[in-house]
Amino acid sequence: MDWPIMQIQSLLLKPMFKMKSLLVAGLMMSGFVFGQRINSDTLKVAHDDGLIVYANKPYPLSKKGQVFAFFGWNRGAFSNSDIHFTGNGYDFQLNNVSARDRPTKLGIVYIDPSWFTVVQYNFRAGYFIKDNLALVLGIDHMKYVMNQNQTVDFSGTISDPKYAAMVQNGQVNLADEQFLTFEHTDGLNYENLGLEKYKNLVHKKNVDLIWSYGAGLGFMFPKSNVKLFGNDRSDRFHVAGMGTDLRSSLNLVFWNHWMIRAEAKAGYINMWDIKTTLNNKPDKARQDFVFGQVLAGIGYTFNTKKYN
User: Fold this and answer.
1) Hey, which bits of 39-150 come out as E strands?
2) What values do phi and psi take at 26, rounded to 5?
3) 279 three-class SS
4) What count of other Cβ atoms lies within 10 Å of the Cβ of residue 4?
5) What is the C-alpha to C-alpha distance for residues 144 and 101, in angstroms, rounded to an integer?
6) Which pTM was predicted?
7) Per-position b or e across 252-283, b if 16+ CB within 10 A of its CB
8) Quick one: DSSP state of residue 178?
9) Could you report the per-residue pLDDT of 92-151, keeping only the tens digit for each?
10) Are 299 and 266 in contact (CB under 8 A)?
Protein backbone atom coordinates (compact mmCIF):
# COMPACT_ATOMS: atom_id res chain seq x y z
CA MET A 1 0.00 0.00 0.00
CA ASP A 2 2.95 2.39 0.62
CA TRP A 3 4.24 2.25 -2.98
CA PRO A 4 1.19 3.86 -4.66
CA ILE A 5 1.23 6.62 -2.02
CA MET A 6 4.89 7.43 -2.74
CA GLN A 7 4.13 7.57 -6.47
CA ILE A 8 1.30 10.06 -5.86
CA GLN A 9 3.54 12.25 -3.65
CA SER A 10 6.25 12.24 -6.32
CA LEU A 11 3.77 13.31 -8.99
CA LEU A 12 2.52 16.17 -6.77
CA LEU A 13 5.98 17.42 -5.72
CA LYS A 14 7.50 17.63 -9.23
CA PRO A 15 5.22 20.48 -10.37
CA MET A 16 5.81 22.26 -7.05
CA PHE A 17 9.60 22.11 -7.57
CA LYS A 18 9.16 23.45 -11.11
CA MET A 19 6.98 26.35 -9.85
CA LYS A 20 9.51 27.15 -7.12
CA SER A 21 12.36 27.18 -9.69
CA LEU A 22 10.40 29.53 -11.93
CA LEU A 23 9.61 31.81 -8.96
CA VAL A 24 13.29 31.99 -7.93
CA ALA A 25 14.36 32.69 -11.51
CA GLY A 26 11.71 35.43 -11.78
CA LEU A 27 12.87 37.08 -8.56
CA MET A 28 16.48 36.98 -9.74
CA MET A 29 15.54 38.57 -13.06
CA SER A 30 13.47 41.26 -11.36
CA GLY A 31 16.35 42.01 -9.03
CA PHE A 32 18.63 42.34 -12.04
CA VAL A 33 16.24 44.71 -13.88
CA PHE A 34 15.40 46.99 -10.94
CA GLY A 35 18.99 46.97 -9.79
CA GLN A 36 20.22 48.58 -13.00
CA ARG A 37 21.66 52.12 -12.93
CA ILE A 38 19.00 54.71 -13.64
CA ASN A 39 19.48 56.42 -17.00
CA SER A 40 21.33 59.74 -16.81
CA ASP A 41 18.23 61.47 -18.23
CA THR A 42 16.13 60.53 -15.18
CA LEU A 43 15.70 62.40 -11.94
CA LYS A 44 15.14 60.97 -8.43
CA VAL A 45 12.56 62.94 -6.41
CA ALA A 46 12.06 62.17 -2.72
CA HIS A 47 8.59 62.84 -1.29
CA ASP A 48 7.71 63.66 2.34
CA ASP A 49 6.40 60.14 2.93
CA GLY A 50 9.82 58.74 2.05
CA LEU A 51 8.71 57.34 -1.29
CA ILE A 52 11.27 57.79 -4.09
CA VAL A 53 9.90 58.40 -7.57
CA TYR A 54 11.98 58.34 -10.74
CA ALA A 55 10.93 60.83 -13.46
CA ASN A 56 12.35 61.66 -16.84
CA LYS A 57 14.64 64.69 -16.85
CA PRO A 58 13.00 67.44 -18.96
CA TYR A 59 14.47 68.30 -22.32
CA PRO A 60 15.80 71.87 -22.67
CA LEU A 61 13.31 74.47 -23.95
CA SER A 62 10.37 72.22 -23.19
CA LYS A 63 9.18 72.37 -19.59
CA LYS A 64 7.03 74.81 -17.63
CA GLY A 65 9.27 77.02 -15.49
CA GLN A 66 12.30 76.92 -17.81
CA VAL A 67 13.94 80.24 -18.74
CA PHE A 68 16.21 81.32 -21.57
CA ALA A 69 18.06 84.47 -22.62
CA PHE A 70 19.52 85.18 -26.05
CA PHE A 71 21.59 87.86 -27.80
CA GLY A 72 22.22 87.99 -31.53
CA TRP A 73 22.61 90.04 -34.70
CA ASN A 74 20.27 90.60 -37.64
CA ARG A 75 19.90 91.57 -41.27
CA GLY A 76 16.67 93.20 -42.40
CA ALA A 77 14.76 93.99 -45.59
CA PHE A 78 11.82 96.37 -46.09
CA SER A 79 9.09 96.82 -48.65
CA ASN A 80 8.65 100.15 -50.41
CA SER A 81 6.37 102.54 -48.55
CA ASP A 82 4.45 105.78 -48.92
CA ILE A 83 5.64 108.45 -46.45
CA HIS A 84 3.23 111.26 -45.60
CA PHE A 85 4.62 114.51 -44.12
CA THR A 86 2.54 117.21 -42.39
CA GLY A 87 3.61 120.44 -40.70
CA ASN A 88 3.54 124.21 -40.87
CA GLY A 89 3.33 125.12 -44.57
CA TYR A 90 3.34 121.64 -46.06
CA ASP A 91 1.20 118.54 -46.44
CA PHE A 92 2.50 116.02 -48.97
CA GLN A 93 3.26 112.38 -49.64
CA LEU A 94 6.22 110.62 -51.25
CA ASN A 95 5.11 107.40 -52.91
CA ASN A 96 6.84 104.06 -53.24
CA VAL A 97 9.99 105.06 -51.32
CA SER A 98 12.65 102.36 -51.11
CA ALA A 99 14.93 101.69 -48.12
CA ARG A 100 17.53 99.22 -46.85
CA ASP A 101 19.21 98.20 -43.62
CA ARG A 102 22.69 99.33 -42.56
CA PRO A 103 24.78 96.52 -41.07
CA THR A 104 27.97 97.47 -39.27
CA LYS A 105 31.19 96.26 -40.85
CA LEU A 106 32.41 93.05 -39.23
CA GLY A 107 34.85 93.84 -36.43
CA ILE A 108 35.42 94.20 -32.70
CA VAL A 109 32.16 96.16 -32.27
CA TYR A 110 30.22 92.90 -32.48
CA ILE A 111 31.77 91.56 -29.26
CA ASP A 112 32.66 94.80 -27.43
CA PRO A 113 29.89 95.41 -24.81
CA SER A 114 30.46 99.17 -24.90
CA TRP A 115 29.52 99.25 -28.60
CA PHE A 116 26.77 96.67 -28.76
CA THR A 117 24.02 99.20 -29.65
CA VAL A 118 25.93 100.26 -32.77
CA VAL A 119 25.21 96.97 -34.54
CA GLN A 120 21.84 95.57 -35.62
CA TYR A 121 21.12 93.38 -32.60
CA ASN A 122 18.39 91.27 -31.03
CA PHE A 123 17.66 90.37 -27.43
CA ARG A 124 15.24 87.71 -26.16
CA ALA A 125 14.18 86.63 -22.67
CA GLY A 126 11.71 83.75 -22.48
CA TYR A 127 9.76 81.95 -19.76
CA PHE A 128 7.84 78.71 -20.32
CA ILE A 129 4.33 79.37 -19.00
CA LYS A 130 3.41 75.75 -19.78
CA ASP A 131 5.10 72.75 -21.35
CA ASN A 132 6.46 73.63 -24.82
CA LEU A 133 4.95 77.16 -24.76
CA ALA A 134 7.03 80.22 -23.90
CA LEU A 135 6.21 83.88 -23.33
CA VAL A 136 9.06 85.84 -24.94
CA LEU A 137 10.09 89.46 -24.43
CA GLY A 138 12.10 90.77 -27.38
CA ILE A 139 14.01 93.82 -28.58
CA ASP A 140 14.74 94.00 -32.31
CA HIS A 141 17.20 96.79 -33.06
CA MET A 142 16.98 97.14 -36.82
CA LYS A 143 18.26 99.99 -38.98
CA TYR A 144 16.14 101.57 -41.72
CA VAL A 145 17.78 103.92 -44.26
CA MET A 146 15.92 105.57 -47.12
CA ASN A 147 17.83 105.10 -50.38
CA GLN A 148 19.03 108.58 -51.25
CA ASN A 149 19.66 107.99 -54.94
CA GLN A 150 16.03 107.75 -56.10
CA THR A 151 13.31 109.82 -57.73
CA VAL A 152 9.84 109.32 -56.25
CA ASP A 153 6.30 110.39 -57.04
CA PHE A 154 4.99 113.43 -55.15
CA SER A 155 1.47 114.50 -54.26
CA GLY A 156 0.39 117.39 -52.00
CA THR A 157 1.39 120.98 -51.31
CA ILE A 158 4.48 122.92 -50.14
CA SER A 159 4.24 126.65 -49.41
CA ASP A 160 7.99 127.35 -49.48
CA PRO A 161 8.81 128.20 -53.13
CA LYS A 162 12.39 126.93 -52.84
CA TYR A 163 11.33 123.36 -52.04
CA ALA A 164 8.16 123.50 -54.12
CA ALA A 165 10.40 124.18 -57.12
CA MET A 166 12.20 120.88 -56.53
CA VAL A 167 9.05 119.05 -57.58
CA GLN A 168 9.15 118.48 -61.34
CA ASN A 169 6.33 116.78 -63.25
CA GLY A 170 4.89 115.30 -60.07
CA GLN A 171 8.24 113.86 -58.97
CA VAL A 172 11.12 114.85 -56.71
CA ASN A 173 14.74 113.75 -56.91
CA LEU A 174 16.18 113.00 -53.44
CA ALA A 175 19.79 112.44 -54.50
CA ASP A 176 21.28 115.78 -53.38
CA GLU A 177 19.86 115.48 -49.82
CA GLN A 178 18.51 119.05 -49.88
CA PHE A 179 14.87 118.01 -49.93
CA LEU A 180 14.97 115.13 -47.42
CA THR A 181 17.16 112.66 -45.56
CA PHE A 182 15.18 110.02 -43.69
CA GLU A 183 16.34 107.07 -41.57
CA HIS A 184 15.69 105.14 -38.37
CA THR A 185 19.26 104.14 -37.57
CA ASP A 186 19.49 104.41 -33.80
CA GLY A 187 17.38 102.50 -34.67
CA LEU A 188 14.14 100.98 -35.94
CA ASN A 189 13.45 99.56 -32.47
CA TYR A 190 10.69 96.95 -32.25
CA GLU A 191 9.91 96.20 -28.58
CA ASN A 192 7.71 93.12 -28.64
CA LEU A 193 6.04 90.38 -26.63
CA GLY A 194 5.47 87.01 -28.28
CA LEU A 195 4.21 83.48 -27.75
CA GLU A 196 6.38 80.66 -29.11
CA LYS A 197 5.66 76.93 -29.39
CA TYR A 198 8.67 74.58 -29.08
CA LYS A 199 9.19 71.02 -30.36
CA ASN A 200 12.23 68.81 -29.79
CA LEU A 201 13.35 67.35 -33.12
CA VAL A 202 16.56 65.58 -32.08
CA HIS A 203 17.64 64.46 -28.60
CA LYS A 204 21.15 63.08 -28.25
CA LYS A 205 23.60 62.99 -25.38
CA ASN A 206 24.56 66.62 -24.67
CA VAL A 207 22.91 67.90 -27.88
CA ASP A 208 19.31 68.85 -28.67
CA LEU A 209 17.80 70.35 -31.81
CA ILE A 210 14.60 72.27 -31.12
CA TRP A 211 12.23 74.00 -33.54
CA SER A 212 9.99 76.88 -32.53
CA TYR A 213 7.34 79.01 -34.18
CA GLY A 214 5.17 81.83 -32.96
CA ALA A 215 3.94 85.40 -33.27
CA GLY A 216 4.60 88.73 -31.61
CA LEU A 217 3.08 92.17 -31.10
CA GLY A 218 4.73 95.33 -29.85
CA PHE A 219 5.38 99.03 -30.18
CA MET A 220 7.89 100.95 -32.27
CA PHE A 221 10.38 103.09 -30.34
CA PRO A 222 12.67 104.48 -33.05
CA LYS A 223 15.32 107.14 -32.87
CA SER A 224 14.55 108.71 -36.24
CA ASN A 225 17.16 110.81 -38.01
CA VAL A 226 15.12 113.11 -40.25
CA LYS A 227 16.19 116.31 -41.97
CA LEU A 228 13.41 117.95 -43.99
CA PHE A 229 13.77 121.23 -45.96
CA GLY A 230 17.09 122.06 -44.29
CA ASN A 231 15.59 122.16 -40.80
CA ASP A 232 17.60 121.00 -37.78
CA ARG A 233 17.83 117.23 -37.83
CA SER A 234 15.34 115.40 -35.64
CA ASP A 235 17.19 112.73 -33.65
CA ARG A 236 15.32 111.48 -30.58
CA PHE A 237 13.63 108.39 -29.21
CA HIS A 238 9.87 108.41 -29.50
CA VAL A 239 6.99 105.92 -29.44
CA ALA A 240 5.91 106.16 -33.07
CA GLY A 241 3.56 103.24 -33.72
CA MET A 242 3.16 99.48 -33.53
CA GLY A 243 4.38 96.30 -35.18
CA THR A 244 3.50 92.63 -35.40
CA ASP A 245 5.36 89.56 -36.67
CA LEU A 246 5.44 85.83 -37.35
CA ARG A 247 8.65 84.00 -36.46
CA SER A 248 10.31 80.59 -36.59
CA SER A 249 13.65 79.41 -35.22
CA LEU A 250 16.01 76.45 -34.90
CA ASN A 251 17.88 76.07 -31.60
CA LEU A 252 20.91 73.89 -30.96
CA VAL A 253 21.32 73.29 -27.22
CA PHE A 254 24.54 71.84 -25.82
CA TRP A 255 24.85 70.20 -22.38
CA ASN A 256 21.22 71.21 -21.64
CA HIS A 257 22.15 74.90 -21.27
CA TRP A 258 24.20 76.65 -23.97
CA MET A 259 22.27 77.43 -27.15
CA ILE A 260 22.84 78.65 -30.69
CA ARG A 261 19.74 80.15 -32.29
CA ALA A 262 18.91 80.96 -35.91
CA GLU A 263 15.61 82.72 -36.58
CA ALA A 264 13.60 84.12 -39.48
CA LYS A 265 10.66 86.46 -39.12
CA ALA A 266 8.31 88.54 -41.24
CA GLY A 267 6.09 91.31 -40.02
CA TYR A 268 4.22 94.55 -40.51
CA ILE A 269 5.09 97.99 -39.06
CA ASN A 270 2.81 101.02 -38.91
CA MET A 271 4.27 104.27 -37.57
CA TRP A 272 1.83 107.18 -37.54
CA ASP A 273 3.79 109.60 -35.35
CA ILE A 274 7.39 109.95 -36.60
CA LYS A 275 8.93 113.17 -35.28
CA THR A 276 10.55 115.27 -38.01
CA THR A 277 11.68 118.32 -35.98
CA LEU A 278 13.65 118.82 -32.77
CA ASN A 279 11.01 120.93 -31.04
CA ASN A 280 7.47 120.12 -29.96
CA LYS A 281 5.84 121.40 -33.13
CA PRO A 282 3.15 119.15 -34.64
CA ASP A 283 5.41 118.34 -37.62
CA LYS A 284 5.41 114.61 -38.19
CA ALA A 285 5.49 111.83 -40.77
CA ARG A 286 3.72 108.52 -41.06
CA GLN A 287 4.49 105.34 -42.97
CA ASP A 288 3.76 101.62 -42.96
CA PHE A 289 5.64 98.72 -44.55
CA VAL A 290 6.33 95.00 -44.44
CA PHE A 291 9.69 93.78 -43.14
CA GLY A 292 11.70 90.59 -43.14
CA GLN A 293 14.53 89.66 -40.81
CA VAL A 294 17.06 86.87 -40.30
CA LEU A 295 19.12 86.68 -37.13
CA ALA A 296 21.53 84.43 -35.29
CA GLY A 297 23.25 84.44 -31.93
CA ILE A 298 23.96 82.65 -28.66
CA GLY A 299 22.01 82.11 -25.46
CA TYR A 300 21.61 80.19 -22.23
CA THR A 301 18.68 78.19 -20.80
CA PHE A 302 18.05 76.74 -17.35
CA ASN A 303 15.38 75.31 -15.06
CA THR A 304 13.91 77.47 -12.30
CA LYS A 305 12.65 74.32 -10.56
CA LYS A 306 15.25 72.44 -8.53
CA TYR A 307 15.52 68.66 -8.79
CA ASN A 308 17.09 66.40 -6.17
Assistant:
1) 42-46, 52-56, 66-78, 81-87, 90-97, 99-100, 121-130, 133-146
2) -65, -45
3) coil
4) 8
5) 5
6) 0.78
7) ebeebeebebebebebebebeebbbbeeeeeb
8) S
9) 999 999 999 988 777 676 666 666 667 888 999 999 999 999 999 999 999 999 999 999
10) no
